[in-house]
C-alpha cells in the first residue's frame, strides 16, 4: 500500500520546492527515507515537495514491519559520506521510543560545547581568485600558522587595548543564557534542523522557541545573523573591537574615526621575480597617518577584500576593479586599474569602521620587505574569532530611555531604502551605458567626422592654390588653417572622455558594487525582524516567555541600528562623491569647449586680412 503520513503541526513553506502542511492533514509519501530531516510527499491539495520529517507521523499498517533504515538509498554510491542516523530527538516526543539499555547515544556531544554545533560560518558571495594573474606566491604566503605568535596584527592603530595584561580591555559577551532552550530547542533539536512548534511533544507552552529558517543557504543564516538573534553567540570582545553606533541628526550613525586619514596610490611599476620568470605590477601606497610608503600587488588587495567581506555582513565593503586575464601590463589597463583602486581606497579610508579594522591597518602599515610580519598579520586576520554571529557582539548601540528603535518605523525606512537602491541601480546602469556609448562616439565617430570636414576644407584650399593670383594667397592660407583647426578639434574630441566621462564611469562602477551589496545587508535585517514578529506571536499565544521575546527584540535592535547606520553612511558618502564628480565633469566640459572655441576663433581671425 502507498506510504502515508499525518501532519502533527502546521508548516508554512518558505522556499521553492517546499509544500505547506495543515495539522491532522494526511499526506502521501514518495519515500519513507528522509534526507537530513526532510521528507518528500504530496499534500491533500495535490502539491508535491519537501517538508520536515519531524512535523509528520508515518501511518503504518498494523501487521507490517518497518523496513530497515537505508539513508541515501536513492543517491549514487560514493556521492556522499553517510551521516549518523537521525536521532530520536529530531521527532516529536509522541513518536520517540526508549532505546535499549545498551544502545549508544545517537549524538555524542562534547561536554565543553555550549551547543551541539557551532553557528554556521559566513559564506558570502566572495570567492578568492582562482588562477588569476596575482596568485599567491611562496614569498608572501606559506602553509604554517602563526596566528598565535605574539604581536601579530596588534591593534596598533589606535591602541585601544589597555597595557595591563592580556586580559585587560576584554570582556565576554554571550546571548545563550537568555535562550537556554534556544540553542537546542525545547525538544533537544540541534541547530540547523527543523523544529516542530512548541519544541516537539507535550510540555509547557512557555517552552516554544522561534523556528529556524529552513533555507540554510540564505544570507541571514550564513552571515550569523540568525544565530545571533536566537541567542547563540558567545565570545570575548576587546575594547578595540567595539563598533559604536551613535544617534546623530539623521538617525543612527557609525561613530566617527577619531584619527581620520587618507592614502594615495601612486607609481604602478612592473616588477619581476624568479630571475624574470614572474612579472607583476606593484602599487605604491602612502598612508597620511604614517607617511611610510609600502608596495602592494593586486592579490594583496584581493585578499584584504575577502577578509573584510567575510567579517562585516552589515557593512558595504567596496568592490575592487575587475580582474583581467590578458593585457595586464598594457599602459591603459594599468592606469584604469590604478584609478579604480584609488576610488576603492578613498571609500575604505572614509568608512569609520573599515578604516579602523586591524586587517586594513596591517595592509597599510606592514613594511613590504618584512615577510614574517606580513604572514603573522595575515594569519591573525584569518583566525579572527569576531566573525559570523560573534561579529554582532562587537556592535555597541545607544542605551537608555528613547534609545530603542520603533521596529515598524525601521521596517518602513529599510523598505524605502530598498526601493531607492533599486531605482538608483537602474539609473546607474542607464547612465553608464549612455556615457560609454557617448565616449565611443567621441573617440571614433566625432573625431572621424570633424577630421572629414577638415580634409574637405584642405582639398578646397589645394584647389584654390592652382590660382596663382597674389590677392588669393591669403584666402588659401586661411582655409588651410581652418582645415587644420577642424583636424585638431577631432583630436580634442577623441581625448576628451579621459578627462570627463571616464571618471564618471569609474565612480558608477564603484557604486554598482555598493548597490550589489545592499540586498544581502537588507536581507539580514529583514530576517531579524521576522524573528521578532514570530516571538511576539508566541508570547500572545502563551507559548513563549516574555523575557525570551525581549531578548530577541533587543538583538534585532542591534542589527537594526547597524543597518540604519550603514544606510546613513552610504547616503552621506554618495552626496559627497556625486557632488564632487559632477563639478569635475562640468568643469572639464567647459574647458573642452573653451579649447574648441579658441581654435575656431583663431581660424576666424585668419580671414581678417584677406
Give a concise summary.
This protein is α+β, with helices and mostly antiparallel strands.
Span between N and C termini?
Answer: 109 Å
Helix content: 40-55%
- Helix/sheet category: alpha+beta
- Cα-based radius of gyration, to the nearest Å: 33 Å
Count of distinct strands: 13
For CATH, the homologous superfamily of one domain is named as Arfaptin homology (AH) domain/BAR domain
Strand fraction equals 5-15%
CATH top level of one domain is Mainly Alpha
Main beta sheet strand tally, sense and closure: 5 strands, antiparallel
The residue ranges in which pLDDT falls below 50 over 5 or more consecutive positions are 63-168, 177-195, 197-206
Order of helices and strands: EEEEEEHHEEEEEEHHHHEHHHH
> What is the CATH T-level topology of one domain?
Substrate Binding Domain Of Dnak, Chain:A, Domain 2
Give average pLDDT, whole number: 78
- Tally of alpha and pi helices: 10
- Widest sheet, order of strands: 4-3-2-1-5
Shape: elongated
* CATH architecture verdict of one domain: Up-down Bundle
Write up what this structure looks like.
- Residues 104-115 have a biased composition (Low complexity).
- It is found in: Cytoplasmic vesicle membrane.
- Residues 132-142 have a biased composition (Acidic residues).
- Residues 1-61 form the SH3 domain.
- Keywords: Cell cycle, Cell division, Cytoplasmic vesicle, Endocytosis, Membrane, Mitosis, Protein transport, SH3 domain, Transport.
- There is one protein chain.
- Among the domains are: 4-59, SH3 type barrels; 239-396, Phox-like domain (PX Domain), CATH 3.30.1520; 407-606, Substrate Binding Domain Of Dnak, Chain:A, Domain 2 (Up-down Bundle), CATH 1.20.1270.60.
- The strands form four sheets. Strands 4-3-2-1-5 form a five-stranded antiparallel sheet, with no helix packed on it. Strands 9-8-13 form a three-stranded mixed sheet.
- The protein contains ten helices and 13 strands.
- It has helices at 219-222, 225-229, 298-311, 331-350, 358-365, 371-382, 407-464, 473-499, 501-540, 546-605; strands at residues 4-7, 26-29, 38-42, 48-52, 56-59, 170-174, 234-238, 243-248, 251-254, 263-273, 278-287, 294-297, 395-396.
- Helices cover 41% and strands 11% of the residues.
- A hairpin with an 8-residue loop joins strand 2 and strand 3 (38-42).
- 32% of the residues are buried.
- It starts with a strand and ends in a 5-residue tail after the last helix.
- With 610 residues, the chain is an alpha+beta fold.
- Mean pLDDT is 78; it is low at 63-168, 177-195 and 197-206.
Amino acid at each position: 500500500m502507498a506510504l502515508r503520513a499525518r501532519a502533527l503541526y502546521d508548516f508554512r513553506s518558505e522556499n521553492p520546492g517546499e509544500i505547506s502542511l495543515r495539522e491532522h492533514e494526511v499526506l502521501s509519501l514518495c519515500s519513507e527515507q528522509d534526507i537530513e530531516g526532510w521528507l518528500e510527499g504530496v499534500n491533500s491539495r495535490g502539491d508535491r515537495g519537501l517538508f520536515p520529517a519531524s512535523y509528520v507521523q508515518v501511518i503504518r499498517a498494523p501487521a507490517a514491519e518497518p523496513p530497515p533504515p537505508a539513508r541515501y538509498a536513492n543517491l549514487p554510491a560514493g556521492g556522499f559520506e553517510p551521516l549518523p542516523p537521525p536521532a530520536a530527538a529530531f521527532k516529536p516526543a509522541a513518536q520517540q521510543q526508549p532505546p535499549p539499555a545498551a544502545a549508544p547515544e545517537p549524538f555524542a556531544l562534547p561536554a565543553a560545547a555550549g551547543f551541539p554545533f557551532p553557528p554556521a560560518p559566513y559564506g558570502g558571495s566572495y570567492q578568492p581568485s582562482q588562477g588569476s594573474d596575482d596568485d599567491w606566491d611562496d614569498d608572501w604566503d606559506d602553509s604554517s600558522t602563526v596566528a598565535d605568535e605574539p604581536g601579530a596584527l596588534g591593534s596598533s592603530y589606535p591602541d585601544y587595548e589597555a597595557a595591563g595584561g592580556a586580559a585587560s580591555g576584554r570582556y565576554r559577551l554571550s546571548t545563550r543564557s537568555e535562550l537556554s532552550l534556544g540553542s537546542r530547542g525545547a525538544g533537544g533539536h540541534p541547530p540547523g534542523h527543523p523544529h516542530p512548534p512548541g519544541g516537539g511533544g507535550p510540555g509547557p507552552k512557555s517552552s516554544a522557541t522561534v523556528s529556524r529558517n529552513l533555507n540554510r543557504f540564505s544570507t541571514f543564516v550564513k552571515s550569523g545573523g540568525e544565530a545571533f538573534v536566537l541567542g547563540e553567540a558567545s565570545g570575548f570582545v576587546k575594547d578595540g573591537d567595539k563598533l559604536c553606533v551613535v544617534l546623530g541628526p539623521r538617525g543612527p550613525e557609525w561613530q566617527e574615526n577619531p584619527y581620520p586619514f587618507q592614502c594615495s596610490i601612486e607609481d604602478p611599476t612592473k616588477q619581476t621575480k624568479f630571475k624574470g620568470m614572474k612579472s607583476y605590477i606593484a602599487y605604491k601606497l602612502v598612508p597620511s597617518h604614517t607617511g611610510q610608503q609600502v608596495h602592494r600587488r593586486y592579490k594583496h588587495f584581493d585578499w584584504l577584500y575577502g577578509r573584510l567581506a567575510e567579517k562585516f555582513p552589515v557593512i558595504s565593503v567596496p568592490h575592487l576593479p575587475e580582474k583581467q586575464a590578458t593585457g595586464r601590463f598594457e599602459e591603459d589597463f594599468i592606469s584604469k586599474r590604478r584609478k579604480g583602486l584609488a576610488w576603492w581606497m578613498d571609500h575604505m579610508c572614509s568608512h569609520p569602521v573599515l578604516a579602523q579594522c586591524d586587517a586594513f591597518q596591517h595592509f597599510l602599515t606592514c613594511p613590504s620587505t618584512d615577510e614574517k610580519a606580513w604572514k603573522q598579520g595575515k594569519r591573525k586576520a584569518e583566525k579572527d574569532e569576531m566573525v559570523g554571529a560573534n561579529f554582532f557582539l562587537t556592535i555597541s548601540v545607544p542605551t537608555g530611555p528613547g534609545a530603542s528603535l520603533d521596529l515598524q518605523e525601521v521596517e518602513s525606512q529599510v523598505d524605502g531604502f530598498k526601493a531607492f537602491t533599486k531605482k538608483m541601480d537602474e539609473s546607474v546602469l542607464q547612465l553608464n551605458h549612455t556615457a560609454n556609448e557617448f565616449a565611443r562616439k567621441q573617440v571614433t565617430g566625432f573625431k572621424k567626422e570633424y577630421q572629414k570636414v577638415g580634409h574637405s576644407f584642405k582639398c578646397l584650399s589645394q584647389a584654390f592654390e592652382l590660382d596663382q593670383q597674389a590677392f588669393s594667397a591669403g584666402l588659401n592660407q586661411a582655409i588651410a588653417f581652418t582645415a587644420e583647426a577642424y583636424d585638431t578639434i577631432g583630436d580634442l574630441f577623441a581625448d576628451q572622455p579621459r578627462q570627463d566621462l571616464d571618471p564618471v564611469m569609474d565612480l558608477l562602477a564603484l557604486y554598482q558594487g555598493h548597490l550589489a551589496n545592499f540586498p544581502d545587508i537588507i536581507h539580514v535585517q529583514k530576517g531579524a525582524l521576522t524573528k521578532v514578529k514570530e516571538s511576539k506571536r508566541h508570547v500572545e499565544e502563551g507559548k513563549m516567555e516574555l523575557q525570551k521575546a525581549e531578548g530577541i527584540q533587543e538583538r534585532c535592535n542591534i542589527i537594526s541600528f547597524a543597518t540604519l547606520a550603514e544606510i546613513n553612511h552610504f547616503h552621506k558618502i554618495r552626496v559627497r562623491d556625486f557632488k564632487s564628480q559632477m563639478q569635475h565633469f562640468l568643469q572639464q566640459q567647459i574647458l573642452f569647449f573653451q579649447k574648441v572655441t579658441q581654435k575656431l576663433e583663431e581660424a576666424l581671425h585668419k580671414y581678417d586680412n584677406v
